[in-house]
Write a structure and sequence with these properties.
The protein is mainly α and about 140 residues long. About 75% of the residues lie in helices and about 0% in strands.
């Protein structure tokens, strides 16, 4: 469902200035942006970051606060999750709110962050791929 949206985003200038994220570390070492082993290591590290994001936003802010607010814990988590996307492309920022709500609902019903983690990683790595492909031009 996200592939066409990410494909469309991959044609936008603001998206291509942000993705792939590895282009932002070029100041460290020129090899980091030209060598595939460095890119792979970066993308693996980037993926691990989403584990911490899911643990905090869906694990802590939803699962832990469900005992106090039940499903009412989802909406504030979505708003807070949207805030960490400020400064990213506008479409990504807007959709992060709705995506956060959807992942919050999934976590609420399954009592597990793993489904959301897989979805989040898939979207993140598809956006990276779209950035690589879009910047080939």
């Amino acid at each position: 469902m996200m592939v066409p949206l990410i494909g469309l985003a991959g044609t936008q200038a603001d998206f291509l200035q942000t993705y792939p994220k590895v282009q932002r570390i070029a100041f460290i070492d020129d090899h980091a942006t030209t060598s595939w082993p460095w890119k792979f290591l970066y993308e693996l590290s980037y993926g691990i970051d989403f584990l911490t994001i899911e643990f905090f936003f869906r694990g802590f802010l939803v699962l832990a606060f469900m005992r106090y607010g039940d499903k009412d814990a989802i909406l504030p988590m979505g708003a807070f999750y949207c805030c960490i996307h400020f400064g990213k492309p506008l479409f990504e920022c807007i959709t992060s709110y709705f995506g956060g709500i959807i992942l919050g609902v999934v976590v609420y019903h399954t009592r597990s962050i793993w489904g959301g983690l897989i979805v989040h990683l898939g979207i993140a790595w598809l956006m990276e791929l779209a950035g690589y492909l879009g910047n080939l031009k």
